[in-house]
Design a protein that fits this description.
With 293 residues, this protein is of the alpha+beta class. It contains 10 helices and 4 strands, in the order H-E-H-E-H-H-E-H-E-H-H-H-H-H. It is elongated and about 100 Å long.
Protein backbone atom coordinates (compact mmCIF):
# COMPACT_ATOMS: atom_id res chain seq x y z
CA UNK A 1 0.00 0.00 0.00
CA UNK A 2 2.81 2.38 0.89
CA UNK A 3 4.47 1.78 -2.47
CA UNK A 4 1.17 2.35 -4.27
CA UNK A 5 0.51 5.51 -2.28
CA UNK A 6 4.04 6.79 -2.97
CA UNK A 7 3.70 6.02 -6.68
CA UNK A 8 0.31 7.73 -6.78
CA UNK A 9 1.77 10.85 -5.14
CA UNK A 10 4.61 10.93 -7.64
CA UNK A 11 2.17 10.66 -10.56
CA UNK A 12 0.04 13.45 -9.09
CA UNK A 13 3.12 15.62 -8.58
CA UNK A 14 4.32 15.02 -12.15
CA UNK A 15 0.86 15.76 -13.56
CA UNK A 16 0.65 18.98 -11.58
CA UNK A 17 4.16 19.98 -12.64
CA UNK A 18 3.45 19.17 -16.28
CA UNK A 19 0.17 21.11 -16.20
CA UNK A 20 1.94 24.09 -14.65
CA UNK A 21 4.75 23.96 -17.22
CA UNK A 22 2.35 23.73 -20.16
CA UNK A 23 0.24 26.58 -18.80
CA UNK A 24 3.27 28.83 -18.46
CA UNK A 25 4.63 27.79 -21.88
CA UNK A 26 1.34 28.72 -23.59
CA UNK A 27 1.39 32.12 -21.92
CA UNK A 28 5.01 32.63 -22.98
CA UNK A 29 4.11 31.48 -26.50
CA UNK A 30 1.50 34.23 -26.74
CA UNK A 31 3.99 36.76 -25.37
CA UNK A 32 6.54 35.50 -27.90
CA UNK A 33 4.06 36.05 -30.72
CA UNK A 34 3.61 39.65 -29.58
CA UNK A 35 7.39 40.18 -29.44
CA UNK A 36 7.74 38.58 -32.88
CA UNK A 37 4.98 40.80 -34.26
CA UNK A 38 6.79 43.82 -32.87
CA UNK A 39 10.03 42.90 -34.63
CA UNK A 40 8.17 42.04 -37.86
CA UNK A 41 6.30 45.36 -37.77
CA UNK A 42 9.60 47.21 -37.31
CA UNK A 43 11.23 45.29 -40.20
CA UNK A 44 8.17 45.84 -42.39
CA UNK A 45 8.25 49.56 -41.57
CA UNK A 46 11.93 49.77 -42.56
CA UNK A 47 11.29 47.72 -45.72
CA UNK A 48 8.42 49.99 -46.81
CA UNK A 49 10.30 53.20 -45.98
CA UNK A 50 13.43 52.06 -47.79
CA UNK A 51 11.35 51.56 -50.94
CA UNK A 52 10.25 55.18 -50.74
CA UNK A 53 12.41 57.62 -52.66
CA UNK A 54 12.48 60.55 -55.00
CA UNK A 55 13.53 61.39 -58.54
CA UNK A 56 16.14 64.00 -59.40
CA UNK A 57 15.30 65.26 -62.87
CA UNK A 58 18.43 66.44 -64.71
CA UNK A 59 18.86 69.33 -67.12
CA UNK A 60 19.26 68.62 -70.82
CA UNK A 61 22.63 70.32 -70.67
CA UNK A 62 23.97 68.02 -67.90
CA UNK A 63 27.28 66.47 -68.93
CA UNK A 64 28.20 62.85 -68.28
CA UNK A 65 30.95 63.81 -65.84
CA UNK A 66 28.62 66.10 -63.89
CA UNK A 67 26.02 63.34 -63.66
CA UNK A 68 28.60 60.83 -62.37
CA UNK A 69 29.84 63.34 -59.79
CA UNK A 70 26.31 63.92 -58.51
CA UNK A 71 25.61 60.18 -58.39
CA UNK A 72 28.82 59.48 -56.44
CA UNK A 73 27.97 62.30 -54.03
CA UNK A 74 24.54 60.76 -53.47
CA UNK A 75 25.94 57.26 -52.94
CA UNK A 76 28.22 58.62 -50.21
CA UNK A 77 25.41 60.58 -48.51
CA UNK A 78 24.19 59.31 -45.12
CA UNK A 79 20.54 59.38 -46.18
CA UNK A 80 20.88 57.37 -49.41
CA UNK A 81 20.43 53.62 -49.60
CA UNK A 82 20.75 53.42 -53.40
CA UNK A 83 21.05 55.87 -56.31
CA UNK A 84 20.43 54.73 -59.89
CA UNK A 85 20.95 56.81 -63.02
CA UNK A 86 18.24 56.46 -65.69
CA UNK A 87 19.01 57.89 -69.11
CA UNK A 88 16.42 59.38 -71.47
CA UNK A 89 16.54 56.20 -73.56
CA UNK A 90 15.99 53.92 -70.56
CA UNK A 91 13.11 56.11 -69.36
CA UNK A 92 11.56 55.91 -72.83
CA UNK A 93 11.79 52.10 -72.80
CA UNK A 94 9.99 51.98 -69.43
CA UNK A 95 7.21 54.23 -70.72
CA UNK A 96 6.85 52.09 -73.85
CA UNK A 97 6.42 48.98 -71.68
CA UNK A 98 3.78 50.71 -69.54
CA UNK A 99 1.84 52.38 -72.39
CA UNK A 100 2.40 49.78 -75.09
CA UNK A 101 3.38 52.47 -77.61
CA UNK A 102 6.25 54.83 -78.34
CA UNK A 103 5.54 58.51 -77.43
CA UNK A 104 8.42 59.50 -79.74
CA UNK A 105 6.40 58.31 -82.77
CA UNK A 106 3.62 60.74 -81.88
CA UNK A 107 5.67 63.74 -80.71
CA UNK A 108 8.65 63.31 -82.99
CA UNK A 109 11.09 63.68 -80.10
CA UNK A 110 11.79 61.92 -76.82
CA UNK A 111 9.83 64.02 -74.26
CA UNK A 112 11.51 62.44 -71.24
CA UNK A 113 14.51 63.68 -69.28
CA UNK A 114 17.31 61.71 -67.70
CA UNK A 115 17.08 61.32 -63.92
CA UNK A 116 18.60 59.75 -60.83
CA UNK A 117 16.28 57.56 -58.77
CA UNK A 118 17.18 57.75 -55.09
CA UNK A 119 16.06 55.27 -52.42
CA UNK A 120 16.22 56.62 -48.88
CA UNK A 121 17.35 54.94 -45.69
CA UNK A 122 14.43 54.29 -43.33
CA UNK A 123 15.46 56.96 -40.79
CA UNK A 124 15.28 59.69 -43.45
CA UNK A 125 12.00 58.60 -45.10
CA UNK A 126 9.91 61.45 -43.69
CA UNK A 127 8.73 64.79 -45.00
CA UNK A 128 10.94 66.88 -42.69
CA UNK A 129 14.16 65.14 -43.75
CA UNK A 130 13.12 65.24 -47.40
CA UNK A 131 12.52 68.98 -47.23
CA UNK A 132 16.10 69.51 -46.00
CA UNK A 133 17.51 67.08 -48.61
CA UNK A 134 15.52 68.75 -51.38
CA UNK A 135 16.77 72.20 -50.42
CA UNK A 136 20.40 71.06 -50.59
CA UNK A 137 20.01 69.25 -53.93
CA UNK A 138 18.25 72.13 -55.69
CA UNK A 139 21.47 74.11 -55.38
CA UNK A 140 23.09 71.70 -57.85
CA UNK A 141 23.41 73.30 -61.29
CA UNK A 142 22.38 70.21 -63.27
CA UNK A 143 19.23 69.57 -61.21
CA UNK A 144 16.06 70.59 -63.03
CA UNK A 145 13.48 69.33 -60.54
CA UNK A 146 12.98 66.96 -57.61
CA UNK A 147 9.86 64.80 -57.58
CA UNK A 148 8.41 62.79 -54.71
CA UNK A 149 4.99 61.95 -53.29
CA UNK A 150 4.76 63.97 -50.10
CA UNK A 151 1.27 62.71 -49.21
CA UNK A 152 2.28 59.06 -49.65
CA UNK A 153 5.35 59.46 -47.42
CA UNK A 154 3.31 61.20 -44.72
CA UNK A 155 0.61 58.53 -44.94
CA UNK A 156 3.15 55.69 -44.62
CA UNK A 157 4.76 57.29 -41.55
CA UNK A 158 1.40 57.98 -39.91
CA UNK A 159 0.18 54.41 -40.48
CA UNK A 160 3.42 52.88 -39.20
CA UNK A 161 3.28 55.05 -36.07
CA UNK A 162 -0.33 54.04 -35.50
CA UNK A 163 0.51 50.34 -35.86
CA UNK A 164 3.40 50.76 -33.43
CA UNK A 165 1.16 52.36 -30.79
CA UNK A 166 -1.48 49.62 -31.18
CA UNK A 167 1.16 46.88 -30.79
CA UNK A 168 2.63 48.63 -27.74
CA UNK A 169 -0.80 48.90 -26.09
CA UNK A 170 -1.52 45.22 -26.84
CA UNK A 171 1.89 44.21 -25.47
CA UNK A 172 1.27 46.08 -22.18
CA UNK A 173 -2.20 44.57 -21.74
CA UNK A 174 -0.95 41.10 -22.63
CA UNK A 175 1.99 41.44 -20.23
CA UNK A 176 -0.40 42.23 -17.36
CA UNK A 177 -2.69 39.32 -18.28
CA UNK A 178 0.28 36.97 -18.67
CA UNK A 179 1.69 37.94 -15.30
CA UNK A 180 -1.71 37.30 -13.69
CA UNK A 181 -2.03 33.87 -15.35
CA UNK A 182 1.51 32.77 -14.45
CA UNK A 183 1.09 34.15 -10.93
CA UNK A 184 -2.14 32.17 -10.42
CA UNK A 185 -0.55 28.99 -11.78
CA UNK A 186 2.42 29.30 -9.41
CA UNK A 187 0.19 30.33 -6.51
CA UNK A 188 -1.67 27.01 -6.79
CA UNK A 189 1.62 25.17 -6.29
CA UNK A 190 2.47 27.30 -3.26
CA UNK A 191 -1.07 26.83 -1.90
CA UNK A 192 -0.64 23.06 -1.80
CA UNK A 193 2.47 23.54 0.38
CA UNK A 194 1.22 26.34 2.60
CA UNK A 195 1.33 24.21 5.77
CA UNK A 196 4.89 23.10 4.95
CA UNK A 197 5.82 26.79 4.64
CA UNK A 198 4.25 27.47 8.05
CA UNK A 199 6.12 24.51 9.60
CA UNK A 200 9.43 25.78 8.22
CA UNK A 201 8.66 29.19 9.70
CA UNK A 202 7.95 27.61 13.12
CA UNK A 203 11.31 25.83 13.24
CA UNK A 204 13.13 29.13 12.66
CA UNK A 205 13.68 29.17 8.89
CA UNK A 206 14.15 32.68 7.53
CA UNK A 207 11.80 33.98 4.76
CA UNK A 208 14.70 33.94 2.29
CA UNK A 209 15.46 30.29 3.13
CA UNK A 210 11.78 29.33 2.69
CA UNK A 211 11.44 31.21 -0.61
CA UNK A 212 14.66 29.90 -2.19
CA UNK A 213 13.54 26.36 -3.18
CA UNK A 214 10.21 27.64 -4.51
CA UNK A 215 11.88 30.33 -6.61
CA UNK A 216 14.57 27.95 -7.93
CA UNK A 217 11.96 25.32 -8.78
CA UNK A 218 9.75 27.80 -10.61
CA UNK A 219 12.67 29.39 -12.46
CA UNK A 220 13.62 25.93 -13.77
CA UNK A 221 9.97 25.45 -14.67
CA UNK A 222 10.02 28.83 -16.46
CA UNK A 223 13.11 27.84 -18.46
CA UNK A 224 11.50 24.57 -19.58
CA UNK A 225 8.30 26.45 -20.46
CA UNK A 226 10.37 28.99 -22.43
CA UNK A 227 12.00 26.21 -24.46
CA UNK A 228 8.56 24.78 -25.29
CA UNK A 229 7.35 28.26 -26.29
CA UNK A 230 10.44 28.70 -28.51
CA UNK A 231 9.70 25.42 -30.28
CA UNK A 232 6.11 26.50 -30.90
CA UNK A 233 7.29 29.87 -32.23
CA UNK A 234 9.82 28.16 -34.51
CA UNK A 235 7.06 25.98 -35.92
CA UNK A 236 4.87 29.03 -36.61
CA UNK A 237 7.71 30.92 -38.32
CA UNK A 238 8.65 27.88 -40.41
CA UNK A 239 5.03 27.48 -41.53
CA UNK A 240 4.74 31.17 -42.49
CA UNK A 241 8.02 31.02 -44.39
CA UNK A 242 6.81 28.02 -46.37
CA UNK A 243 3.44 29.60 -47.15
CA UNK A 244 4.49 33.24 -47.80
CA UNK A 245 7.34 33.91 -50.23
CA UNK A 246 8.10 37.47 -49.08
CA UNK A 247 8.01 36.57 -45.39
CA UNK A 248 11.66 35.50 -45.49
CA UNK A 249 12.70 39.11 -46.19
CA UNK A 250 11.28 40.17 -42.82
CA UNK A 251 12.82 37.36 -40.75
CA UNK A 252 16.48 36.95 -39.86
CA UNK A 253 18.49 34.71 -37.53
CA UNK A 254 19.54 37.61 -35.22
CA UNK A 255 15.90 38.69 -34.94
CA UNK A 256 14.74 35.19 -33.98
CA UNK A 257 17.56 34.91 -31.43
CA UNK A 258 16.37 38.19 -29.87
CA UNK A 259 12.79 36.86 -29.75
CA UNK A 260 13.96 33.63 -28.09
CA UNK A 261 16.11 35.55 -25.62
CA UNK A 262 13.15 37.80 -24.74
CA UNK A 263 10.90 34.77 -24.17
CA UNK A 264 13.56 33.12 -21.97
CA UNK A 265 14.10 36.27 -19.90
CA UNK A 266 10.35 36.80 -19.49
CA UNK A 267 9.91 33.16 -18.46
CA UNK A 268 12.60 33.46 -15.77
CA UNK A 269 11.55 36.88 -14.46
CA UNK A 270 7.80 36.26 -14.40
CA UNK A 271 8.25 32.86 -12.74
CA UNK A 272 10.69 34.19 -10.12
CA UNK A 273 8.58 37.26 -9.25
CA UNK A 274 5.34 35.24 -9.12
CA UNK A 275 6.94 32.61 -6.86
CA UNK A 276 8.34 35.33 -4.58
CA UNK A 277 4.93 36.96 -4.11
CA UNK A 278 3.03 33.67 -3.79
CA UNK A 279 5.32 32.29 -1.06
CA UNK A 280 5.46 35.63 0.75
CA UNK A 281 1.70 35.58 1.04
CA UNK A 282 1.72 32.32 2.99
CA UNK A 283 4.79 33.27 5.04
CA UNK A 284 2.89 36.28 6.42
CA UNK A 285 -0.26 34.27 7.28
CA UNK A 286 -1.11 32.84 10.70
CA UNK A 287 -1.85 29.13 10.97
CA UNK A 288 -5.59 29.66 11.47
CA UNK A 289 -5.81 31.75 8.32
CA UNK A 290 -4.27 28.96 6.25
CA UNK A 291 -7.46 26.91 6.59
CA UNK A 292 -9.62 29.60 5.00
CA UNK A 293 -7.60 30.67 1.93
Amino acid sequence: MNNKASFSKRISFLNARMTSTLSVSLVLFILGIMVLMGFLANNLSRHVKENIGFSIVLNESAGEQQVHQLQRMLERADYVKAAQYISKEDALKEVMIELGENPEDVLGVNPLQSSIEVKLKADYANTDSLAVIEKGLRDQVIVSDILYQKDLIQSVNDNMSRIGLILLALAIVLMIISFALISNTIRLGAYSKRFLIHTMKLVGATPAFIRRPFIVSNVINGIVASVIAMLLLSGCVYYLMSEMENFTTLVSVPMMLLVFLTVLVLGIILSAVSAYWAVNRYIRMDRDDLYYV
